[in-house]
Design a protein that fits this description.
This protein is an alpha/beta fold. Helices cover about 30% and strands about 25% of the residues. A five-stranded mixed sheet has the order 2-7-6-5-4, covered by helices on one side. The protein has a two-stranded antiparallel sheet with strand order 1-3. The longest helix is centred in the C-terminal third of the chain and has 13 residues. The protein starts with a strand and ends with a helix. The relative contact order is 0.24.
Length: about 90
């Protein structure tokens, strides 16, 4: 399954900052994310991982200058990440 960042933002009620046409194919942690995956940032302890992440987009509570890619601003990044993970884990029967 592939979704645009705009579609994901619409589903979780977020606002995209940056390219909303980025294609997302899954979720992963900041340190393990790769091209096509979305991650989240909500704790300053993970600033170093944020600066090294290869995620295609981030879920954040407010836009951060520590990441140059597109960001989806949501009230609760961890909860939104769980919702996006559930979206990508749906199995078609």
């Amino acid at each position: 399954m592939t979704r645009t960042l705009r579609e994901i933002a619409d589903i979780i009620g977020g606002k995209v900052r940056g390219d909303d046409e980025v294609l997302i194919t899954g979720v992963n942690s900041l340190s393990d994310a790769s091209d096509g995956e979305i991650s989240f940032f909500s704790d300053a302890r993970y600033r170093e991982a944020l600066q090294r992440t290869k995620a295609s987009a981030l879920l954040v509570s407010r836009e951060t200058g520590l990441y140059a890619g597109p960001q989806v601003v949501v009230s609760n990044p961890a909860l939104s990440y769980a919702k996006v993970a559930a979206l990508f884990s749906r199995i078609k029967v």
